[in-house]
Amino acid sequence: MSKMRVILSALLLGMGLLQAASAGPLRISVQRLTLPTALKLARAALDACEGKGMQVAVTVVDRNGIVQVALRNTVAPPVALRISRDKAYTAAMFNAATGSLEQSAGSPLASVEGVLMLAGGLPVQVGGNLLGAVGVSGAPSGAEDEACARAGLEAVLDDLEMAD
């Protein structure tokens, strides 16, 4: 095969691949939590912990891990805010409850900035779509942090599932 034929074949193949790749949609729709929904989720999680006498911080992030809402009880330690954010970020990035990631805490992924593989972070999912995540910190245990996060999630889940 001559050099020219090889070049021409490669060019035609490349054009075919380019044309096939451009046949897909040019944009996508991404679902996100609204601010009122994120506020309701955070407030419900905070209230759940306060109802048990626990002073915590709660952070809700969008699907990209960007903070939408952050609440800290007046006497919760300031570090709880950072930890709740990292738990929410981790839950969003891995689309998983952070408690289920604890066995991976020694992996190289755990050294990524903002990743915290401790219980207390939950993804917000509806119909298989990740909308965001919630993280709670300041309770005496990760299990209690997660219970408060779950209470926040349950406060909005029915409305999210019923939404268009």
Q: Main traits of this protein?
A:
alpha+beta, Beta-Lactamase, 4-stranded antiparallel β-sheet, 4 helices, globular
Short synopsis of the structure:
45% of the residues lie in helices and 16% in strands.
What does it look like?
- The protein is an alpha+beta fold and about 160 residues long.
- The chain has one domain (about 35-160): 2-Layer Sandwich (Beta-Lactamase), CATH 3.30.450.150.
- About 45% of the residues lie in helices and about 15% in strands.
- The chain has a four-stranded antiparallel sheet with strand order 2-1-4-3.
- A hairpin with a 2-residue loop joins strand 3 (about 120-125) and strand 4.
- The longest helix is centred in the C-terminal third of the chain and has 21 residues, at about 140-160.
- It starts with a helix and ends with a helix.
- The mean pLDDT is about 90.
**Would you identify the CATH architecture?**
2-Layer Sandwich
Please state the average pLDDT score: 89
Helical element count? Answer: 4
CATH topology: Beta-Lactamase
CATH homologous group name: Haem-degrading domain
| Share of residues in helices | 40-55%
Q: Strand percentage, roughly?
A: 15-25%
- Spatial shape: globular
**Series of secondary-structure elements, N-terminal to C-terminal:** HHEEHEEH
Please outline the major beta sheet. Answer: 4 strands, antiparallel
Total domain count: 1
Termini Cα gap:
58 Å
Q: What Rg is obtained from the alpha carbons, in whole angstroms? A: 22 Å
Strand order of the largest sheet: 2-1-4-3
**In CATH's first tier, which class applies?**
Alpha Beta
Q: SS-based structural class?
A: alpha+beta
**Which blocks of ≥5 consecutive residues have pLDDT under 50?**
none
Number of DSSP strand runs: 4
